[in-house]
Design goal:
By secondary structure, the chain is mainly α. Helix content is 69%, strand content 0%. The chain contains eleven helices and no strands. Helix 3 packs across helix 8 (128-149).
Length: 216
């Protein structure tokens, strides 16, 4: 028993498609998403450091790089399905946790098991690094869904994903990186021409103004 199965699992993540079951112009995989989330987490953490907070970079990178590794066991569940109700989300989490624990006990050498129990657990906790991960995950979802919106994808789910991402990011308004995102990065993102732009931007701004003290 070595670390071979863990490394093989990285290839599995390259085969798992994000937002399965929906028509899309650009395919994204869980592996690519994990890389982007790690990079976005890095950007957000830089902003937090500039604001005077201390970042545990090892903890942050571990959380970001591994946050969706366990999807190799159950795949990427459609966002509307996953968030349909708390009971379903809890059941999925239990299944994922049991499969992860079994994987660690059977495939990870004993001397490394404690390390991988930490790396493969739920990373979105109350720590600063956990909060940054939660924001980065939704920032990537926001960019991913917006890419489909500007291409006039008729699937309404991408607007739903975008709105859901905005609401979640907004809930972390106390972070300097979130305020910076909405004040500096977000305006550049949406500064593109696409069908129904004015109505869409108005809907998003209504959400932001309702969920935060920011005035976008």
């Amino acid at each position: 028993m070595g670390l071979n199965e863990f490394i093989l699992g990285l290839s599995n993540l390259e085969m798992i498609t994000r937002a399965p079951g929906f028509f899309k112009f650009t395919e994204h995989t869980v592996a690519a998403h994990s890389y982007r989330v790690a990079s976005i987490s890095q950007v957000l953490a830089d902003i937090e450091e500039q604001a005077g907070l201390k970042i545990d970079w090892k903890r942050l990178y571990e959380k970001a790089l591994n946050h969706d590794y366990t999807e190799r066991f159950i795949g990427d569940i459609k966002t509307p399905v996953k968030y349909a109700n708390k009971e379903l989300r809890g059941m999925l989490q239990i299944v994922e946790e049991k499969m992860t624990a079994e994987f660690i006990s059977q495939e990870i050498p004993l001397e490394f098991q404690e390390i991988y129990e930490r790396r493969l657990c739920e990373g979105k906790d109350e720590t600063l690094e956990g909060q940054i991960l939660a924001v980065a995950d939704k920032v990537d979802l926001l960019y991913e869904s917006f890419e489909e919106i500007v291409k006039n994808n008729p699937e309404p789910v991408y607007k739903e994903m975008f709105f859901e991402a905005v609401k979640t990011i907004s809930s972390f308004e106390h972070l300097a990186s979130v305020r910076y995102f909405f004040e500096t990065i977000y305006p550049e993102l949406v500064n593109r021409d696409f069908y129904g732009k004015n109505k869409f931007i108005q809907q998003v701004n209504t959400i932001i103004n309702a969920e935060t003290s920011l005035n976008i």
